[in-house]
Amino acid sequence: NKGKLNGAEVDMIYTRCKGPTKKIPYDNFRTKAIEQIAAAVFGSATEENKKKVVDILCKSAPSLNSAVKVSDDDVVNRLTDTKGYTGAHKSRFDESGKGRGIEGREDRQKNTGYVGGYKNEGTYNKSASPNRASPNRR
Fold first, then answer.
1. Whole-angstrom Cα distance, residue 138 to residue 123?
2. Which of 7, 8, 30, 130 is deepest in the core (most CB within 10 A)?
């Protein structure tokens, strides 16, 4: 059985070591799982082989599950290319293809106090104080 550490063997070791929970308790991992992994990889669970397994595990960097990959076929590329969007969807992205967020999904009002067609926005004389009385008033 030497060198037979594949997905099925790892699943069986996990099932035998986890107990009633979904996770392997550390004590079970240290005593049962390492022993079974050493037996599967090196053929026997001697102290030397168990130390080799521990050394391999300690030197290995954690990695992500590579089962899910991003598709890069032509269909996905065409669907995600924002240059081909038309109508309401076109306004959701800028020229570089980056999403505009809420600005691209809703018509936002300026709420400046001016009506929509007013052309001289911002030209009001700001030095006039609303608290000062008009010279015509007494």
1. 29
2. 30
Which residues have CB under 8 Å from 29's CB, separation 6+? 17
Q: How far apart are CA 31 and CA 25, in angstroms?
A: 10
Please write the tens of the pLDDT for every residue from 83-98.
777 777 777 777 777 7
Rounded distance between C-alpha atoms, residue 18 and residue 11, angstroms: 10
CB contact at 8 A, 24 and 13: no
**Are the C-beta atoms of residues 24 and 33 closer than 8 Å to each other?**
yes
Residues 6+ apart with CB under 8 A from 30: none
> For tokens 């990889």, what's the residue?
41
Spatial contact of 70 and 64, defined as CB atoms under 8 Å apart: no
Q: What is the pLDDT of residues 27-56, one digit of tens each?
A: 989 999 999 999 999 988 899 999 999 998
